[in-house]
Amino acid sequence: MTIPAVRTFDNHTPLVDTELLPGRGTGVNAAHRMYEHLIGIWATGVIEAAHDLGAFTALISGPATASELSSKLGTDLRATRVLLDGLAAYDVVERSRAADGQAVYTLPPEMHDIFAPEGLYSLVGKIRHDRNVAWSAWRNLATNVRTGARNSDGSQQLNQISEEDYTSLVRGINFWAPPIAATLATALREQGWTDGTGRTLLDVGCGTGIYSQLLLQEFSGLNARALDAERIIPIANAQAHRLGVADRFNPEIVDFWADDWGTGVDVALFVNIFHLQTPESARELLLRSAKALTEDGVIAIADHIVDEDSTDGNTQNRFFRLFAASMLATGGGDAFTVHDYDQWLADAGLRRVALLDTPMHRLLLVKRA
Amino acid sequence: MTIPAVRTFDNHTPLVDTELLPGRGTGVNAAHRMYEHLIGIWATGVIEAAHDLGAFTALISGPATASELSSKLGTDLRATRVLLDGLAAYDVVERSRAADGQAVYTLPPEMHDIFAPEGLYSLVGKIRHDRNVAWSAWRNLATNVRTGARNSDGSQQLNQISEEDYTSLVRGINFWAPPIAATLATALREQGWTDGTGRTLLDVGCGTGIYSQLLLQEFSGLNARALDAERIIPIANAQAHRLGVADRFNPEIVDFWADDWGTGVDVALFVNIFHLQTPESARELLLRSAKALTEDGVIAIADHIVDEDSTDGNTQNRFFRLFAASMLATGGGDAFTVHDYDQWLADAGLRRVALLDTPMHRLLLVKRA
């Protein structure tokens, strides 16, 4: 197999020294590659175990030896050393030597926020959600491939994410926002935006509101209307205060399908909303957006949008297709293609004006046809 | 955190386009990196689901569309497409387009052997073992870090691998052998071996016998004595016939600790044996080897031997430390250091003569002191 040339990126932790293998295209090489994929579960397991034990909370307060940490956490000494060495293997902690030769483990400063529950870009919500849902869902993915994630009466299974899990998860994916918000801000400046005075952003399904809030920081004259369910709005409100933009962040409890969205919207923003739609509901969202939009307004859709025309091995497409598998595992959602979106846009009297790559999404910009 | 410079290798499937992120050392970057680690479970899940459904067996018989495969396997069409696209994202299958625009999925020839139960370098045994043991072990790693994988009476937990699992697993890790056997063969040639006539290899805990068998192929005059338990020997025997070396492959059912190992051994080989020992049993194995060895004989230990002196981010050390975490998860075993081995060797009147890297092991060569 000629594996398409992929760019390699910083995040990789190689566990197989492939330079010492025979040439490409042999079964032995392929087996080593598959083995490395099969042990992907180890990364999840090591990090989540450290989370479960409170190891990150302990390391946020300062570096520690295995012995100090096992006393603090009430864990077995040798096993704690093995766990810490495992974290160091993935560069989650730094491992250095004290004067007495003992290994000392340090959680680097930029990781504190990630493993603290209240960190702005904390992954704790994502980890909690995965502890509850992901292991069993992925362990039993074959079942949903058999049934198509349908119930025995043929109806589509709802996404397994419970309300509580969603509330947890919604805080755990804030980290996706900065590069997406930066890409959108650049695009809006190219459309003539300066400080956004007189402009209105409509954030449909705002979650924590992080996208709106970062844009409000970018554009000091912008106002945002942020729509979501009743149990989410307090989270968004608190975070708007934390980020100093509460005076221009206006949350509204809205039923997207029943309630009116108003008018005069300059940018209608949908982040991770479309992948949970059916083709019918996707069309409906676009029609409702079009009604709310000013004449030269923009719809901005950040989602897992597969571009069939991009090169083989495109990193975004890979992630989006696996995200679709993840949604299949937990029941519900899909990664739609550019082609799908173009058809829905045409049906709603809209047209695509840009498709921009971000690290783990694409940003689709839309105007009236 | 300054992540130590790591060499990147062929096996990586990047899922985050880190080039589009802000600079290193920011929390947002670190969160993207941790997220990519946390979704390591996806690779395991996608490949094992395809195995569970018989998708690989079907694709070994020829390329197929999602529609053809879902008919054959009795699975949901859309979900089958999502699964196949997930496999393509990890370069497990190739995805191309038929004339009618439908995606066609091909399992490349070098992958057939890997996913066929009877393939020489098949991973099926490893996958079966992981289905039985690994998911729950890794999901609950924190428990073993608390207890040190000890039973409530304080005794060390035995490795969870049942006899049946072991028999399955032992066939599933044959793929490790070729680069290790090649490295050992080169070292023996450097010691003056030509075709190995008159030489005897003792393979202690031979498993399928793959290491002996590859060395018998390399050295046409060599004879091997292969020691293992009664239920393993028939597997080794059958494979020796398959590889055409049965006439020089002599299996012996032996209790390593009670029975005599004989004498006149030129090479005593231990592959993945030492990581399951305690310091006491490791010393005992070395003493027994020394008694069996000719005056200029060699002990060859292929294992997960951590070299504390190698550079930060060394790929072998990373893998070995995670392998230790894997053994902690399933209860039993450790990755010992070069320092540990050197002490045991000194105690047994032996000395280290070489330490050689292979893709996923180190090969330690030992002689009389």
Automatic annotation (TrEMBL), chains A, B:
Residues 199-350 form the O-methyltransferase C-terminal domain. One of its GO terms (biological process) is methylation. Residues 36-107 form the O-methyltransferase dimerisation domain. It holds the Pfam family Methyltransf_2. The keyword Transferase applies. GO terms for molecular function: O-methyltransferase activity; protein dimerization activity. PANTHER family: O-METHYLTRANSFERASE CICE, PUTATIVE (AFU_ORTHOLOGUE AFUA_4G14580)-RELATED. This is SAM-dependent methyltransferase. It comes from Kitasatospora aureofaciens. The lineage of its organism: Bacteria, Bacillati, Actinomycetota, Actinomycetes, Kitasatosporales.
